[in-house]
Structure formats: C-alpha cells, structure tokens
Amino acid sequence: MAEVPTYENVKIERDGATTFVILNRPEKRNAMSPALHVDMCNALDWVSEDDETKVVVVTGAGGHFCAGQDLKLFFRANENDPKAQRKTGDDSQAWRWNKLSRCPKPTIAMVHGYCFGGGFTPVIACDFAIAADDATFGLSEVNWGIIPGGLVAWCVTQIMNYRDALYYCCTGERFSGKEAAAMKFVNKSVPVAELKNAVLELARNLERKNPLTVRYTKEAVRSVRGMDQAQAYDYLDAKILALKQVDPDKGGDKAMKQFLDEKSFKPGLGEYAR
Ligand code: ACO
After folding, report:
1. Which of 125-129, 221-225, 269-273 has the lowest average pLDDT?
2. What is the pLDDT averaged over residues 64-77?
3. 272 lines ligand 1 (CB under 6 A)
C-alpha cells in the first residue's frame, strides 16, 4: 500500500479503501488557519488521485470537527495585507467547496464536537454527512458582528430549508447532531461512540460499487439541481452515453446479462454485478 503524505495541519489515515482526511489543529479546535487551507488543498488533490482510495472521509482531530476560520490567523493577521487576504480566501474556498464538491470519489463528513461558521462549508460540500448525536453546530457569525460570508450563506441555503437557514444564520443559535439529522442537514446522527462505525458502514457500501458509476451518479444529481427540465434531460442523456464509453468494466451491460440471462443477481436487493 502506497505511503500517505504528511502535512503540518492535516492528517491522513487509511482504513481499507477509505481514506480519512483529518483537520489537525486540535488545540485550536481545528480552527482553519491560512496554512491549514493550503494543506487541505494539497491533501484533497492527493486523495482525489490516489488509486487506493475509493471513499474520502473529512473530519477533525481531538473530538471536534472545526471551530470555523481562525479569527487570529485568517482575519486579524491579514487585516492590512490585501494580497494575503485574497490568497487565503482563494485557498479556503478552493478546498472547502470547489475541490470537495467536485471530488471524483464519494465524500463523507464525519462530524463530532464543534462545527462553527466556516466549518459548515465542507460539511455541505461532502456528498454525505454523519454526525454524533451530541455534536454542536452553530452559524455564529452573527455573534461576531459579521455575516456568513465566504459562501457559507449560499451553502446553507443549498441544503437547509429556507426558514431554518434564516433562523440559524440570524440567531446564531446552536443545534445538536440529533437536530441536524431531524432537519436533514446531515444524513443521520448516532451516539458518538458509534460514529466511526456508522461512517465506515456507509463507506464500505460505497467501496463495493463501480467507482465510475458512483462518480457519474453524484455528478448528475448535483448538476441537475441548477437546470431546467429540458436541460436536465439532455445532460443526463449525454452523461449516460459518456459513462458507457468510459467504464472499463462495462458495468451496465454486465448487470443486464447477469439479471436477464444468467439470473445470477438481484440489483433491487442491493447486490452489485461483478
Ligand atoms: N479562531 C481562532 N482560535 C480559536 C477559534 C477560532 N475560530 N476557536 C477556538 N480557538 C482557540 C481558542 O482561542 C483557544 O486558543 P488558546 O488555547 O490559545 O487560548 C483554543 O482554540 C481552545 O479554545 P477554547 O475556547 O479554550 O475551547 P472551548 O472548548 O472552551 O470552546 C469553542 C471551544 C466553543 C469552539 C470556542 O473556542 C469558540 O466559541 N470559538 C469560536 C467559534 C466560532 O464562532 N467560529 C466561527 C468563526 S467565524 C467564521 O468561521 C467565518
């Protein structure tokens, strides 16, 4: 198995074909410094290309997900340096939204402990999110006298009901992992002791699927949200043909043969054509 890279602010750990990308500033509750943003950009570039990784989990070290942007290093240290502000803003955006939401592999946010402010963006950018029941979420920007910028306000409206988005952005009130699951901000919540197992259970399911089919499916579901019906129909038609062309396993043909001719598998029961 190929060695994993090392970074100052990010840890990489493998569990089978699932790779954990871990924000690693536990003494600062994984608040995101400019250097952490650079490390996360590099880590996500690496994991996206790593042949042994089929599923990516994003989480935080020390029992917490992320306390948001590092107020001291992200904001104050760059106050009088517009160039540094721009570079850090771009890096921060690049991994939290662009790279994560376009990751060619399925991504799971594993949320425990605190998740504040700018920490919402990567949770939303991941394809799936599982939280500990007692995780604490907070859009605390309003308490700092700022608005949920850096795309946070846009991200939350992608996933939260409009009333919930306005409520939590304007009040800064916290909500638990259990509440996050009830409002479908995360797929589900579990007791913290079961969190890693719940994440791995989902990851193992995804690991067993044809990786290209999973990739094309997630791209399709994401992309059609911004299209009208006619555009979606054309786009999905083209996407189906593209998958047929690029899939070296010819998964669709194989499945059809196994189901119709050989009667050797039942896809409706969650099996997968091999
Ligand atoms: N930026 C910079 N440093 C931070 C941040 C942050 N967002 N969050 C925590 N830290 C630092 C603390 O200053 C402290 O550093 P120190 O040990 O050098 O004093 C260390 O992390 C531990 O924090 P504590 O407050 O001592 O830990 P505690 O567990 O009691 O509380 C909590 C954690 C609730 C996360 C608290 O630190 C907090 O409220 N942080 C701010 C969270 C927030 O509102 N984030 C959104 C920022 S706005 C945005 O992201 C755009």
Report:
1. 269-273
2. 94
3. no
Q: How far is the CA of 71 from the centre of ligand 1 (A)?
A: 8
Render the burial of 16-41: b for 16+ CB within 10 Å, e for the rest. ebbbbbbbbbeebbbbbbbbbbbbbb
Ligand 1 in reach of 113 Cβ (< 6 A): no
Measured in angstroms, how far is the CA atom of residue 28 from the centroid of ligand 1? Answer: 6
pLDDT band of residue 274 (cuts 50, 70, 90) is low
Is any ligand 1 atom within 6 A of the Cβ of residue 66? no
Which pair of structure tokens corresponds to residue 251? 């998964």
Please state, in angstroms and as integers, the Cα–Cα distance from residue 48 to each residue in 22, 43, 114, 139, following that order: 15, 8, 26, 29
CATH class (in words) of the domain with range 10-207: alpha beta
Distance 165 CA to ligand 1 centre (A): 23
Q: Is the model more confident about 264 or about 1? A: 264
SS3 84: helix
Residue 270 has pLDDT above 80, yes or no: no
Query: Structure tokens of 116?
Result: 């504040």
Q: How many CB atoms are closer than 10 A to CB 82? A: 9
Q: Is the CB of 71 under 6 A from ligand 1?
A: yes
Ligand 1 centroid vs 140 CA: distance in angstroms? Answer: 11
What's the predicted TM-score (pTM) here?
0.96
Compute the average pLDDT of residues 247-256.
85
Sequence spans of domains, the chain: 10-207, 211-272
